[in-house]
Each structure stands twice: as structure tokens, then as C-alpha cells.
Amino acid sequence: MAQFHVFEAPVSGFNFENSTRNVLLENALGEGKSKAPKPVKTGTTIAGVVFKDGVVLGADTRATSSEVVADKMCAKIHYIAPNIYCCGAGTAADTFKTTELLSSNLTIFSLNSERNPRVTMAAHILQDMLFRYRGMIGANLILGGVDFTGNHLYTVGPFGSMDKRPYLAMGSGDLAAMGILEDRFKANMELDEAKALVRDAIHSGIMSDLGSGHNIDLCVITRQGVDYIRPYQESEYKDTRKEKYKYKQGTTPVLTENVVRLELELLHETVQSHSATCRQEVFLNTDEVTRPALSLDRNLLFFIHYSSF
């Protein structure tokens, strides 16, 4: 007689089974030498809103490496097609190369068909590409654009998930940004109102997240064209150095010094004079590699033949 499996109803309250499992795995593998991977933080705050005549995209400009600010003017709104732009959060190299690849594919499509691509086409290409890599490409994207079917805003996650909404936010500051969007969004907004909403959403993410900061960039996409405003709002937290940190010579002691002399053999030397120009060529015993040396005078140029002995 066939046996039927009856699923038990979940018990109410908190469940710590996964935490217990992780501790057991760490202790079982190498007696504590194996540790659970740390969560990866995307950094960045990006957002987008659909308004009456098009789409407004926004992003901050801070790029971080761990706890270090690597770039204060990082461009996170990428060109895809004349009618489509994309905001990227996550690994900078992944977002740049992913959007470049998408832009190349859509450019070839436009050349063959003599028309602008649809936004849904770009979103599905991104979805198929990211899904194949199972999240190994750290690209969290917000895709916005305008085509003959209307105004569209998509989000594509690193695992290939896709969603279409009238307003979106992604990145490590997305919770604060989404709170602003949910509170103030309304259908058929005017352009100025949509720009102010996206600006305030990005600013909220900047104030709530250390991985977001500095300026705010906006990109307005309509049927009439694209207005890429960089920067739309500069950071209000600017300061100047009060002193010049220039140390005197000898402040830092030299502990060790090692000088290696390069022994070269002079084989042939010629000097040619052309009007007021002096040209000197020095040939040294080398392995057939000729390189120009530094120019010591405006009309004096050395060509040196190098070799390893």
C-alpha cells in the first residue's frame, strides 16, 4: 500500500535551524578552520521612476573598496541605446562590462533592423545572460527606457530575476530610498516632481548607507531625447584642508640603501648636424631592441641600443 507523506504545519515563532547548521558545519570541517562566507555588500544607491512623459533614473557617485572610498565621481548610469539607459550597483567591473556587452548587441540589432530596440528586449537579454552565470556576475541593474509601446522600468538581479515596476531602488541604500519612493510616488507625475522624487530617494540612501555618497546623477529619458545631468546635485559635505601636510626633508629616516650600477659598453657613436639641429645616436651592445631615451634638449634626441649582459 502506498504511503502518503503528511506535511506538518510550521511552528510559530523564530527558527534557528540554519544558524545551528552553520555552527555544526564550521566545527565539522577542519575543526573550526572553515568559516562561513561573509555576505557581500553591493554599495551604491540607484533608483528609477516612471513619470507621465518618460523615465527618470538616478544614482550616487561613490565607489568603495571595502571601507575605502575608491572613487568620488564614479558614473553609474550607463548608455545602452539612444532610448535606453541602465543604472548599475554591485561590482564595478561587472556592471561596466555587462552594460557594454548589452549596448554592443543592441547596436548590432539597430544597424540590422534600422530601428531602436525595445526596452523589454534589453531586459530579457540581461536576464538570460546573468542567469547563465548563477549570480557569479555581481551586477544589480535598473533598466529604464522609452519605446513605441510606452515608458518602461525593469530591475534585473545578478541571478537573473527580473521585475517591472513604476518605481524601483537597488543597492545597499535601497531600503531608505524605497521608503521615500513608496511614500511620495503617484502615477502620471510631472517631470520636475519626478526628478525631485528620485533626487530625494538617492539622498536618503546616501544619508543611511556608508557605501553610497557624494554627488547625485540623474538621467531623464523621453521621446524627445535624453537629458543626462551629471552632477544634478553636488555633495553638501565638502571641506578644505586647513593645513598643508608637507613634511621637511629628512623627517622620514632611510633605513637601508642599495645602489646597483648598470654596466654598459659603448660600441659606436655618431653625431650629425642639420642646420641648427644636433642629432646623436648611441649604439650599445644589446639584444636588437632600440628605444629612444629622454630628450635632454629641444633639438637633441638620443637613440640607445640596449642589451642584457
UniProtKB/TrEMBL annotation:
Keywords: Cytoplasm, Hydrolase, Nucleus, Protease, Proteasome, Threonine protease
GO biological process, one term: proteolysis involved in protein catabolic process
PROSITE patterns on file: PROTEASOME_BETA_1, PROTEASOME_BETA_2
Protein name per the record: Proteasome subunit beta
Positions annotated as active site in the UniProt record: T44
Gene Ontology MF, one: threonine-type endopeptidase activity
Alphabetized Pfam families for the sequence: Pr_beta_C, Proteasome
UniProt subcellular location: Cytoplasm; Nucleus
One of the record's GO cellular component terms: nucleus
Protein purpose: The proteasome is a multicatalytic proteinase complex which is characterized by its ability to cleave peptides with Arg, Phe, Tyr, Leu, and Glu adjacent to the leaving group at neutral or slightly basic pH. The proteasome has an ATP-dependent proteolytic activity. This subunit is involved in antigen processing to generate class I binding peptides. Component of the proteasome, a multicatalytic proteinase complex which is characterized by its ability to cleave peptides with Arg, Phe, Tyr, Leu, and Glu adjacent to the leaving group at neutral or slightly basic pH. The proteasome has an ATP-dependent proteolytic activity.
Reactions this protein catalyses: Cleavage of peptide bonds with very broad specificity
Top-rank lineage group of the source organism: Eukaryota
InterPro entries listed in its UniProt record: Ntn_hydrolases_N, Pept_T1A_subB, Proteasome_bsu_C, Proteasome_bsu_CS, Proteasome_sua/b, Proteasome_suB-type
Subunit description: Component of the proteasome complex.
